Amino acid sequence: MSISYQTNVVNEMLATIVNIQPKDSGSRGTETRETVVYRLADDMLSKLPDDYRQHEVRYVHRLKYSI
Predict the structure, then answer these.
(1) What CA–CA distance (Å, rounded) separates 16 from 27?
(2) Cβ atoms of residues 14 and 33 within 8 Å
(3) In principle, which of 30, 31, 56, 64 could form an S-S bond with 35, CB 3.0–4.6 Å?
(4) 10: alpha, beta or left, given left = phi > 0 and alpha = psi -120 to 50?
(5) pTM, whole model, 2 decimals?
(6) Where are the domains of the chain?
(7) pLDDT 10s digits, 15-26
């Protein structure tokens, strides 16, 4: 996958998260839209695997699925 494609997917996902948040700005002690987005993004990032070398992962998975 290209970096442009991945960037577009992430931008669309974050735009969707922002758009589904309530639009009222009442100060009821609730989180702001931005805080919710940052919290959700941090949660998603925490679930990602550690950085990896793409060519090594492809090699391992190619061996795993070709057997």
Answers:
(1) 23
(2) no
(3) 31
(4) alpha
(5) 0.40
(6) 3-66
(7) 888 788 766 655
